Amino acid sequence: MSDDTRDTASATDRQANLARLRERIDTLDAEMHDLLIERSSIIDELIVTKQGDRKGAAFRPAREAAMMHRFAGRHRGTLPLITVEYLWREIISTFTYLQAPFRLHIPTDRRPNDLRDVARFYFGFNVPLLEVSDADAAIGAVATSENDLALVPLVDGEAPWWQALTQPDGPRIIARLPFFTSSDRPADLPAVVISNPLDDPTPPEWRCYVTAAGPEVLDALSGVDILATAPAGTLFALAADRDPKTFAADAGLPPLAAAGGFAAPLSIDGDPSQKKSQTE
């Protein structure tokens, strides 16, 4: 067989292999679309089943965190886990929006471009995004709504906006972002999601508190996750199994004001088998 003949046969084989692979991709695309349609039909049934339940946002932060943990545990191959997170966040947010429409309020006074990236990464493009002047305005908008959420960046400043999270039956922190943490991830601005109290039976892994103490006091204490600081106080988190009254008494702090809670973010830097909670 001549070189030209071998080259022609090789090229023919490559084209046949490419055609087979493309056909398989088309089949998988159709299967994924069918599964999304089936998921949508289940959501329709869920909406009918839940009629008469307590009204309010349909978010279940603990369930979503458990789903992300499962994905992290079973993930393999070259597809970045961050991409999987993004795709599922779009799916989760869209179907949650279909169950109980909501809007997302974001303040524009601190790193607004980065915050918009986080908002779209986690809540997609179907959820209406409303810009407000500052964190207080975002929390106030949630308080007067039924289902709305706020996304507030964890950036130190002059105003202790978290004081608004300590009102009885008022808005609370329900999630901390990003959930998957990595040194090279996109949309990496630390932020918290704020909602009116949710009907979620699963307790958070970390609980948030407000104190007038400064970070220099809390830095000296073990197991404290400082979220944001201002001259008038600090927003921080403790593992949910720690008693806040005992913690405050041992640290010489006044009683702590509860401000919500969140599932512990998961670090995915390095070996995937070494994934661990960021707050460990």
From TrEMBL:
<feature type="domain" description="Chorismate mutase">
    <location>
        <begin position="12"/>
        <end position="103"/>
    </location>
</feature>
<protein>
    <recommendedName>
        <fullName>chorismate mutase</fullName>
        <ecNumber>5.4.99.5</ecNumber>
    </recommendedName>
</protein>
<dbReference type="InterPro" id="IPR036263">
    <property type="entry name" value="Chorismate_II_sf"/>
</dbReference>
<dbReference type="InterPro" id="IPR036979">
    <property type="entry name" value="CM_dom_sf"/>
</dbReference>
<keyword id="KW-0175">Coiled coil</keyword>
<feature type="coiled-coil region">
    <location>
        <begin position="11"/>
        <end position="38"/>
    </location>
</feature>
<dbReference type="InterPro" id="IPR002701">
    <property type="entry name" value="CM_II_prokaryot"/>
</dbReference>
<dbReference type="Pfam" id="PF01817">
    <property type="entry name" value="CM_2"/>
</dbReference>
